[in-house]
Amino acid sequence: MTGSMMDRKFDSLFDWFDQNRDGHLTHxxxxxxxxxxxxxxxxxxxxxxxxIHDAFEQWWQLLLRHSxxxxxxxxxxxxxxxxxxxxxxxxxxxxxxVMAIADAILDAFxxxxxxVLSRAEYLRxxxxxxxxxxxxEEAFTRLDRDGSGTISYEEYRQAIVDFYLSTDPDAPGNYxxxxxxxxx
Length: 184
Known about the structure:
Blueprint: H1 3-17, E1 24-25, H2 27-38, H3 46-67, E2 75-76, H4 77-88, H5 91-109, E3 116-118, H6 119-128, H7 133-143, E4 150-152, H8 153-165
Antiparallel strand pairs: 1-2, 3-4
Helix pairs in contact: 1-4, 2-3, 3-4, 3-5, 5-8, 6-7
Protein name: Ca2+-binding EF-hand superfamily protein
Domain EF-hand: 5-40, 55-90, 97-130, 131-166
GO molecular function, one term: calcium ion binding
């Protein structure tokens, strides 16, 4: 995977976050995205809902601090792609900005508390996030690296790392939101 593949992954992520489809990210876009993600948790799951909102707030603060070069409170697509590659995915920010969301989602969607995501739990999760079912089916198969019929926390966390950090175009995590070149 080249820089252009990373650009395409972050470009698709930008589209996912641009909730009002105006071509810029704002604080409202990231708060709306956090709401979409937090709606996958049961309403009484205050700890995971709060964790999701807090992580998206941290992500917004990183975007604002490192990419809003003109101070207008908006982040362009180009600024977003650059800051994703240089700051959000940097070791000092990645765990608290990205992995915190993944962990809260895992905790919220492991509805039977068995420490893994079943196919049904995974499909419900990504369906609620708006990913097309054919993409979630393919992603589940790719993410279940050990063929157990479930996705362990380790497999899910590895998928997140793949999406954000991997230079391998065939990395299973590249399919989290659907094929990179064919977003959900």
